[in-house]
Amino acid sequence: MSNQMIKLTQLLGVMALCIMTGACNKNMLDHVPLNQITDETYWQSSEDAVMFATRMYTFMPQDNFVYYEGMSDNGISNDPTTKRFGNSTQDPTISGKEWNYSPMRQAFSFFEHVDQVPGMDVNLKKRLIAEVKFVLAYRYFIMTTLYGDIPFVNSLIKDPNEADLPKTAKSEIIKNVIQWLDEAAADLPQSYTGADLGRATKGAVMALKIRVCLYNEQFSQAATTARELMAMKTYSLYPNYYNFFQKDGDYSAEDIWSFGYTLSVKQNSLRDILGSQALMNGRNILGPTAELVDDYESKNGYYPFTKDPAYKSTDPFGNRDPRLRGTILCPGDIFPYPFFSNINQYDPFNNAGDRIGGDLGSRAGFSWAKNVDRYDYVRSGTNNWKAFRYAEVLLNFAEAQNEISGPSNEVIAVLNQIRTRANMPSVVQTFALNGWAMNQSGLRTFIRHERRIELAGEGLRYFDILRWKLGEQVLQGPIYTVHAPDGIASISTENGHKNKYLKTVVDTRYFNNPKFYVWPIPQSAIDASKGVLVQNPLWK
């Protein structure tokens, strides 16, 4: 790569602003004339190919992926679209968030044109093709996960009359996804340095394959690939859970692949979406649920936490799994990095900015700490969005292997890595403390809970709910605020302030139909079809 090529995180911002795709007709599988960026005037140098491949990364998960948290029982959102998916009032008119064939069009355009670049290094071309396959595989994975059977575009469509395609079975598309990932892994390095940090590696491709296989109940492939990735010895857990999601953890050994941000080119919007208004100059668009907070164990491993002999009703958030405070601001917490005021206590009962029910206030009495950049003193952030990390690989392996053969020393050892980093008791200690049976069912329940806690705030819980078919259990009924009838001891009652809050309903969810396990195809796409594309059966 040329020494003049700028760092990937900057180039992604430049690509998003400068390389546009023209008049896009998304209703016809995003088929558009490609002359703006694919004619003979473009494909003149290796740098052209690198820039085109780099632009593909804009189709990977970015900061707005966190909105999926608001569609799960982990979060409650003020964003209108997220809220409708969260309380199951969506319909085909608003379901187009992930219905996007532009990545496929761009990928197959790349495959068709890259060979015409004069004098291109063979190894560089193979690597770029592998990077594009990584993105292509992800996009088909996310679309089939949400929509099920969809039209399968596997070549560059040049004739608009050929763009109206019928659906292909999800299982067939997933076979192609796995094949692309296997091909990509063979041609990618294990790591990069310098300007190439942030590009897809062999490990990133393997991490995606593990997730694809797990979500599609191909447990043997998921476990085998996870073992191979762990055996590479390239990745390990970052020592500090909270700091990993700050800039501290960017490109660390736990960060398998992340979408990069910089202050000068492209900042993330996580402060606006997640941040406390009073302490972080955020907007509280998406907040944690009280039910998620209540699901954290005590620091001694008791579950529920109220079973711990050290539990105090006036300090309900103390003596808890340390990941609680690494993820969520609870009433009375001291946040040591206040941005625009001298306020450093999170107080949703009294602080004007965060008061429950206020314009920019908390929905349930909690705010996110995880992923909000503590170093940036403006309404922005420059910490990467960690889309694939080693802790998830460990959890994916544990789940897959337990489904294959039940509890084993291997599975427990992997889970203990995560528990140890969190300063929590071991798996065996926790089971003994709570009187749980160590069998496949019991360990399945434990792994699912551990996933929820470890991955909270990362957008993955929603997909777990869909694949485990838990919607009717966890996404139906009222959502409540914090319940603190005995008062929060750390909140002062001077000057008329209150430290008590009675549980109240802030929203209601209606996951009462199997159709909510799959998204409806956007009505606009069906209307544009000539009768070939039909709505998902449960949504007719």
Describe this protein's structure.
- With 540 residues, the chain is mainly α.
- The chain has helices at residues 8-18, 35-38, 46-55, 80-86, 102-113, 122-147, 170-186, 202-215, 219-231, 241-244, 270-274, 277-280, 290-294, 323-327, 390-405, 409-421, 427-434, 440-454, 461-468, 471-474, 523-528; strands spanning 75-77, 150-151, 167-168, 255-259, 286-288, 328-329, 367-368, 385-389, 476-480, 505-510.
- Helix 6 packs parallel to helix 8, helix 15 packs antiparallel against helix 16 (409-421) and helix 15 runs antiparallel to helix 18.
- A two-stranded antiparallel sheet has the order 1-5.
- Helices cover 38% and strands 6% of the residues.
Key structural traits:
about 550 residues, mainly alpha, two-stranded antiparallel ribbon, about 5% strand
**Helical content class:** 25-40%
Low-confidence stretches: 1-6, 14-28, 31-36
How many DSSP helices?
21
List the quaternary state of the chains: single chain
Strand order within the widest sheet?
A: 1-5
Largest sheet at a glance? Answer: 2 strands, antiparallel
Query: Which shape, going by the Cα principal axes?
Result: globular
The portion of residues forming beta strands comes to 5-15%
Taking the alpha carbons of the first and last residues, their distance comes to 51 Å
Number of beta-strand segments: 10
> Rounded to an integer, what's the Rg over CA atoms?
24 Å
What is the typical, i.e. mean, pLDDT? 92
Structural class: mainly alpha
Keywords: Cell outer membrane, Membrane, Signal
Domain SusD-like N-terminal: 46-214
Family: Belongs to the SusD family.
Pfam family, one: SusD-like_3
